[in-house]
Specification:
This protein has about 650 residues and is an alpha+beta fold. The protein has five domains: about 55 residues; about 170 residues, Glutaredoxin (3-Layer(aba) Sandwich), CATH 3.40.30.10; about 90 residues, no CATH class; about 150 residues, Jelly Rolls (Sandwich), CATH 2.60.120; about 150 residues, Jelly Rolls. It has 13 helices and 33 strands. The strands form ten sheets. It has a five-stranded mixed beta sheet with strand order 5-4-3-7-8. Strands 12-22-15-19-23 form a five-stranded mixed beta sheet, with no helix packed on it. The protein is globular, with a radius of gyration of 34 Å. It starts with 7 loop residues before the first helix and ends in a 5-residue tail after the last helix. About 40% of the residues are buried.
C-alpha cells in the first residue's frame, strides 16, 4: 500500500531520501516553518522522540547499569514494611529514587558493632550526597524503639533506624550476625553482603587498622556501574538473638543448672558498669543469647583465659569444666528453658569501692584521658603524682579503672630515674605513648586484667619502693564506638613493720629478635640460671602482635622439669599476670627457659604489616619483644642481693 502524500511516513521517507530533498538554497521559508499541517506533524514526532530519549537519559544517570551483573543469580530483597524507631513505617520503596541503599544490621550490645559505628556513620555522611542512602536495622527482638533511638544518638548514627523483631528482613537477607552490611541497587538486588572492613578476623581477634574496606569498595563499584570485586564476605561479630519460640521441656534448666555457672564465672564482668558489653545477671539476659553463649564458651574465647591446662595451676582460673560446657550446650540446644524460680541462686555480692579496704595511699592519673569513638587501640603510660616521697614498704596494689567500658588492662612500674617523667613532658599527652614493658625499662610491679583480684602478700613479704621513685601506670584503652573519658587510680597498701623478704621480678627476656617476612613459624629461645633458692609465685609474659605460642619451664639441678606456663594462642590484648595456686620451689642452679614462636605470615590476622615485613626487637607495635617476668620470693635474706647482681637493670 502506497503511503499518501503528506502522511508522517511519507514525510519521514522524503526527509531521509537525499534525491527527494531540494537544495537548501531553494527551500522556501514557509516550507520549513511549523505553521503548516505537515510541519506540525514533524514537530510532534521529534518532540515525542526527544521526550523518550530524555527519560532514558535521566534513568541511565540516576540508576547506573551494573556491567556484568547477572540478575537471575542475585538475591533480591522484596519490598518490606518495618516500623522505625521514630514510629514511622518504612518500606524499600522509600529509597527507590536513590542510586543505592546500604542496610546495616546493628546490635546495641555487640562490641564489634559498636566499635564500627563511627566508620558506618562516616560512610553515610560521605555517600548520602552522592545518592546512596543508609538505614540501620535492629533485628534483636528485645531492642525497643526507645533503646534503638538512644543507641543511634549515642553513636552518632544519623539515618533511619528500623526494627525487625520477627527477623523477617534478616531471614530474607540471610543475616545471622551483627554487624552485617547489605548494598542494594535501586531494584532491590543485593550487590554486596558482609563486613564493613577486615579489622576483625574473629571475635577477640582484630588488628589496629583495616587492610580492606569492603563496604566502601562495594558502594564505589555500584556508583561506577560495576559489580563489586568481592560480593560477599564473612560478617564477624555477634550472632543475632533468636525470637522466642515454644521451649520444650528438658532436664537442664537455667535456674537450677546454668545460673550458678554464669553468676560464678561470668557475671563479675558482665554486669552494669563493668567491662562486659552486656549483663548476664538474669534469665532474660542469658536466654536471648543462649546460642551465642554456647559458641563463646565451647571455643574457649570466654571466659578469657590463655594458659593451657597442665602447665602450672593458677588462682582465679575462670575456665569452665567439661561438665559445665556440656550443661550450657544442652540448655541451649533444648530451647533454653527457665525452670523453677525457687531454684534460682542469690546474686553474688559484688564488691563496691576498694576490694582490700581503704588504701594507705591513692595515686590517680593527673589528668583525664579522652578516648576517641574509634580508631586503633591506645597504649599510654602516665606518671602518677609522687606518693613515694620516702621509702615505702608495699604489701599490695589495687587498680581501680575509672571507665571500665574502655580500660582493657593495665600495669604498674617503678621508675627510680627521670626517664618516664621526661617522656611525659615531651609528649603532648596526657601521658606518653608506650607498649607497657621494654620501653619503660623496668619489670612491672603488678598487672591488672578484667577479673583479676588484688591480693596481699604473705606476712613479712612485700616490695620496697625507693624514696623519690616515680610510679608509672600503663593503660591499654579499647575504643567502644563513642567518645569516653578515663581517670584511673591505684591504691597502695603499706606495711608498718620491716619486711622479712622482698619479692623480685626476674626479667627473663632478650633483644635478639629478627623475624623474616612471610615466615609462619619463627622460634626464639631464652635461658637463664638462678643464682639462689627462690619460690615463684607468679608469671607475667609479654610480647606484641606476631607471637603465637609461648612456653616457660624450669629444669631443676636434679633434672626434674617443672612446667610453669604454656599459651598456644597468644593475644596481646589478653596478656596477664598469673598467680600460682601454690608457690613453686626453684633451688639455685635451676635453668629457666622461655620459648616464643612467632607468625610473620599474611595468614596471621593480627599481623600489623600488610604485606609482611622483616620485624626486629623494638618498643612500638610494629616491632616485637619477648619476655616473661617470673615473680619470686628469695628463700634467704641475701637472696635478693644475689638476684640483683644477676640482673642489675632491675627486678
Amino acid at each position: 500500500m502506497r503511503p499518501r502524500s503528506g502522511s508522517p511516513r511519507e514525510t519521514l521517507r522524503r526527509a531521509s531520501d537525499p534525491a527527494s530533498r531540494p537544495s537548501r538554497s531553494h527551500v522556501p521559508l514557509r516550507r520549513v516553518g511549523f505553521g503548516s499541517r505537515r510541519g506540525r506533524r514533524v514537530a510532534l514526532i521529534f518532540l515525542i522522540l526527544g521526550l523518550v530519549c530524555g527519560i532514558l537519559l535521566v534513568r541511565s544517570r540516576s540508576r547506573p547499569l551494573i556491567r556484568g551483573f547477572a540478575k537471575e543469580t542475585a538475591r533480591v530483597i522484596r519490598d518490606f514494611s518495618l516500623r522505625g524507631a521514630d514510629g514511622v513505617l518504612h518500606s524499600l520503596a522509600d529509597w527507590r529514587d536513590r542510586k543505592g541503599l546500604v542496610v546495616v544490621f546493628l546490635g546495641t550490645e555487640c562490641p564489634i558493632s559498636n566499635g564500627l559505628a563511627p566508620e558506618i556513620a562516616r560512610l553515610a555522611a560521605i555517600y548520602d550526597p552522592k545518592g546512596v542512602a543508609f538505614c540501620g536495622v535492629h533485628a534483636d527482638p528485645e531492642v525497643s524503639a526507645e533503646a534503638a533511638s538512644r543507641h543511634a544518638l549515642e553513636y552518632g548514627l544519623r539515618f533511619p533506624i528500623l526494627l525487625d523483631p520477627s527477623q523477617e528482613l534478616a531471614g530474607e537477607a540471610g543475616v545471622t550476625a551483627v554487624p552485617t552490611a547489605l548494598v542494594l541497587d535501586p531494584e532491590g538486588r543485593v550487590v554486596y553482603r558482609g563486613r564493613v572492613d577486615d579489622r576483625f578476623a574473629a571475635p577477640g581477634k582484630g588488628r589496629g587498622e583495616p587492610t580492606t574496606h569492603d563496604l566502601r569498595d562495594a558502594i564505589d563499584a555500584l556508583l561506577g556501574g560495576n559489580v563489586p570485586a568481592v560480593r560477599e564476605t564473612p560478617a564477624v561479630g555477634c550472632p543475632l538473638p533468636r525470637p522466642a519460640r515454644g521451649k520444650p521441656a528438658a532436664n537442664v534448666t537455667y535456674t537450677r543448672d546454668v545460673a550458678p555457672i554464669l553468676l560464678r564465672k561470668c557475671a563479675g564482668c558482665h554486669r552494669p558498669g563493668d567491662v562486659g558489653p552486656f549483663p548476664l545477671l538474669t534469665y532474660k539476659d542469658s536466654a536471648r543469647r543462649a546460642g551465642f553463649l554456647r559458641e563463646m564458651v565451647e571455643s574457649r574465647r570466654m571466659p578469657p583465659w590463655k594458659p593451657e591446662p597442665g602447665f602450672g595451676t593458677f588462682l582465679d582460673d575462670p575456665r569452665l569444666s567439661d561438665r559445665e560446657l556440656a550443661t550450657i550446650a544442652r540448655w541451649s540446644e533444648t530451647g533454653a528453658p527457665e525452670g523453677d524460680p525457687a531454684d534460682l541462686p542469690k546474686l553474688p555480692d559484688f564488691p563496691r569501692g576498694w576490694r582490700l579496704g581503704v588504701p594507705d595511699l591513692v595515686a590517680a592519673m593527673p589528668d583525664p584521658m579522652a578516648i576517641p569513638a574509634d580508631g586503633p587501640d591506645l597504649y599510654r603510660a602516665f606518671v602518677l603524682p609522687r606518693p613515694v616521697g620516702v621509702e615505702r614498704r608495699v604489701v599490695a596494689f589495687e587498680f581501680r579503672p575509672g571507665n571500665r567500658r574502655v580500660v582493657h588492662h593495665s600495669k604498674l612500674f617503678e621508675d627510680p630515674t627521670d626517664a618516664s617523667r621526661k617522656r611525659d613532658r615531651d609528649d603532648p599527652g596526657p601521658g606518653f605513648a608506650s607498649m607497657g614493658s621494654g620501653d619503660i625499662g623496668r619489670p612491672a610491679l603488678w598487672e591488672w586484667t578484667p577479673g583479676t583480684l588484688p591480693r596481699r602478700s604473705p606476712p613479712g613479704v612485700g616490695k620496697v619502693l625507693k624514696a623519690g621513685s616515680d610510679l608509672v601506670l600503663f593503660v591499654h584503652y579499647h575504643p567502644d564506638g563513642k567518645p569516653e573519658v578515663d581517670r584511673s587510680e591505684v591504691g597502695l597498701y603499706l606495711s608498718p613493720a620491716p619486711l622479712l623478704h622482698e619479692w623480685a621480678g626476674i626479667p627473663l627476656g632478650t633483644s635478639m629478635i629478627d623475624i623474616p617476612a612471610g615466615v609462619a613459624r619463627h622460634e626464639v629461645r631464652i635461658k637463664a640460671t638462678l643464682p639462689t633458692d627462690v619460690h615463684a609465685f607468679a608469671v607475667m609474659p609479654h610480647a606484641h602482635y606476631l607471637l603465637r605460642e609461648l612456653k616457660v619451664w624450669a629444669t631443676l639441678p636434679d633434672g626434674l622439669v617443672r612446667r610453669l606456663l604454656s599459651i598456644k594462642d597468644w593475644d596481646f590484648n589478653w596478656q596477664g599476670q598469673y598467680h600460682f595456686a601454690e608457690p613453686v620451689p626453684l633451688p639455685a642452679g635451676t635453668v629457666l627457659e622461655l620459648l616464643g614462636v612467632y607468625d610473620n605470615s599474611a595468614a596471621n590476622p593480627r599481623n600489623p604489616n600488610r604485606p609482611p615485613k622483616r620485624v626486629q626487637f623494638g618498643p612500638t607495635s610494629f616491632d616485637e619483644m619477648l619476655g616473661c617476668h617470673i615473680e619470686v620470693i628469695p628463700d634467704r635474706h641475701d637472696g635478693y642481693a644475689a638476684l640483683r647482681r644477676k640482673w642489675p637493670k632491675g627486678l
